[in-house]
Amino acid sequence: MYLHSILLSGFKTFPVRTQIKFHPGITSIVGPNGSGKSNIVDAILWAMGEGRSSLLRASRMEDVIFKGSSSRSALSRAEVLLNFVQGEESLTIGRRIYREGDSEFLINGSSARLRDVQDKLREIGIESREYVVVEQGQVETFLNMSPQERLVFLEALA
Amino acid sequence: MYLHSILLSGFKTFPVRTQIKFHPGITSIVGPNGSGKSNIVDAILWAMGEGRSSLLRASRMEDVIFKGSSSRSALSRAEVLLNFVQGEESLTIGRRIYREGDSEFLINGSSARLRDVQDKLREIGIESREYVVVEQGQVETFLNMSPQERLVFLEALA
Amino acid sequence: YREKIERAFLDLKDEYSRLFSAVAEGEALMEFREGLHVSVRFKGKNFQPLSMLSGGERALASLLFYIALFRIKPAPFLVLDEVDAPLDLPNVQKLINLIKELRKDTQVIIITHNPATARHADFIYGISMPEDGTSRVYSMRAEELFNSTG
Amino acid sequence: YREKIERAFLDLKDEYSRLFSAVAEGEALMEFREGLHVSVRFKGKNFQPLSMLSGGERALASLLFYIALFRIKPAPFLVLDEVDAPLDLPNVQKLINLIKELRKDTQVIIITHNPATARHADFIYGISMPEDGTSRVYSMRAEELFNSTG
Ligand SMILES: Nc1ncnc2c1ncn2[C@@H]1O[C@H](COP(=O)(O)OP(=O)(O)OP(=O)(O)O)[C@@H](O)[C@H]1O
Ligand SMILES: Nc1ncnc2c1ncn2[C@@H]1O[C@H](COP(=O)(O)OP(=O)(O)OP(=O)(O)O)[C@@H](O)[C@H]1O
Ligand SMILES: [Mg+2]
Ligand SMILES: [Mg+2]
Question: Fewest CB atoms within 10 Å of the CB: A100, B23, D99, D107?
């Protein structure tokens, strides 16, 4: 399965429903400082179940909802959908959060729990978020980890 | 006074006595990864009295002495001299360290204490090391500091 | 289980070692005792504590680790956000070549400010932010990339 | 003494604010209560906690702070090690222009992998490391820089 598209709606600097299609191979994302590139990475991590708001550069999870700009007012909910495809098969993992704090996961449109999402991701070959995402400024993470912490990579391989 | 030259001898990747001349204006230093650019920055910080080996990417202060390479054996001492010039005036701040751990400061060739060096530097307009050096990977330091820690900059201005 | 972990360790140790000597022309050692220990040395240099390596050397050592993992067990995708920032041009090129080898099994998404990196991609997306704090996404071709970064 | 600190604060607050709106087309606020508090917003955006800014925005906000300090009280030199790594090309250009303004009072030494930054220098030193773990320094001219980085 490959990541076919992501849909961001109300997430950080994506107040307008935005779909980004991906293809197999190498995709490069470029643009000015502060334009939203790392926000896309945050969206992917968040939809995959990231629970630590600090890893998404947020103090509280609700901070990922678009907070308004000079010409738009804040929104009250955020949603991200990740669509994986393989031939005829399609899998959509989604997450929503409301400003009051309620948050839910979705698998193919149906409500799900975090552990269901993690199981589904493992099924398609994504053992852990650390395995598939290297965040900005985090390239040295592997070296900075303690020898014990690095075992998570051996577990992902085993 | 401006930094006229630095002399590195036995310091990190400078086993051979090396003098680098500087001029007023803008100097750019370029080169491959691991070639020694940041080591020059460490030398400047060290000669100015940096006491925290971790800020010089060393575990113990003796680690700044050239430890050998595939074709050279380790050395037993390191020395760095910073030469400041203004018209006819010249000021040389130096520091030496021996593998047994002894370390000494020099001002114009004579033995001095750390506080003499700091006083001399303040005389020529260098209030603190933080004020004049932004180390690799440390550009966000100011933002990451607590509001209390940032007061050192106001003190430097006052 | 214990056996699987030891097996994974041996595969990783070999792959990382092989990559390191091929790409960094140095040597990488891994040890498994109460955790995963790593020691590297670059061409012409001796083994040193990891903290003494340069910013670019640390980035390369870390990236080669990810590449080694993906060669043993590819995941569907790999997202890399500005990992090429500390690398010199020859090392950026080495990274690109390794990413190209991964691409048959893994979809790589790389965010970069470096046109040298971006132009090797199969697809390029530009993100812009006109005045209103709202991100806009549009696809670009390699020629457009060079015109916009002048 | 207390008065000197408050005076320094007011100078810094004004200078930083002026720089930020001129260079980042945004707004910067500083407060002095039990410490130095800073709040910034970039063009078209609202004020946000500093942690939510992008890597390049944080680098720029931090660098503008240094520039503001040096405009009020220049030190003999300023050493910048790869501070341009997270910046996009327009922001690199803004940084270079600010550095050029500082140069009459301050000697700036900037380490960089970006030829766009290096070519604006009055002097360029190249550091190389032939096989033996030993650094060699040689002066370069801007034309040579472009040939070597191809
Ligand atoms: N909830 C939110 N509402 C509105 N804006 C937000 C929100 N969260 C983050 N932002 C804005 O997103 C911007 C950061 O975007 P991002 O980190 O994606 O930039 P980037 O393209 O990666 O830039 P760089 O090249 O500097 O890394 C910041 O200006 C921040 O203020
Ligand atoms: N005491 C020492 N003896 C020998 N080599 C040393 C010593 N201390 C550091 N080194 C070596 O110096 C190198 C790092 O140099 P430095 O950090 O100056 O590189 P750099 O030119 O800044 O590279 P980058 O562009 O990646 O930041 C490392 O390879 C390290 O092993
Ligand atoms: Mg970013
Ligand atoms: Mg360096």
Answer: A100
> Tokens 């990783």 identify what position?
C12
The verdict on B146 touching C (C-beta cutoff 8 Å) is no
Spatial contact of B151 and D35, defined as CB atoms under 8 Å apart: yes
Residues of chain C scoring pLDDT < 70: 146-150
Phi/psi class of residue B137: alpha, beta or left (left: φ > 0; alpha: ψ in -120 to 50)? left
Please give the single-letter amino acid code of residue B2.
Y
Angle, helices D2-23 vs D89-102, to 10°: value is 140
A108 in reach of chain D (CB within 8 A): no
Q: Which chain B residues in 11-70 lie under 8 Å from chain C, judged by CB atoms? A: 31-35, 37-38, 54, 57-59, 63, 67-70
Q: What CA–CA distance (Å, rounded) separates B18 from A157?
A: 48
Contacts of B54 in chain C (CB under 8 A): 51
Query: C85, D89: Cβ pair inside 8 Å?
Result: no
User: Which residue in C44, C82, C86 is closest to D82 by CB distance?
Assistant: C86
pLDDT band at D147 (very low <50, low <70, confident <90, very high): low
**Taking a C-beta distance cutoff of 8 angstroms, is the pair B41, D79 a contact?**
yes
Share of chain C above pLDDT 90, in %: 89
- H helices of chain D, where? 2-23, 55-72, 89-102, 115-118, 142-148
Tokens of D112: 């960089």
Distance B28 CA to ligand 1 centre (A): 31
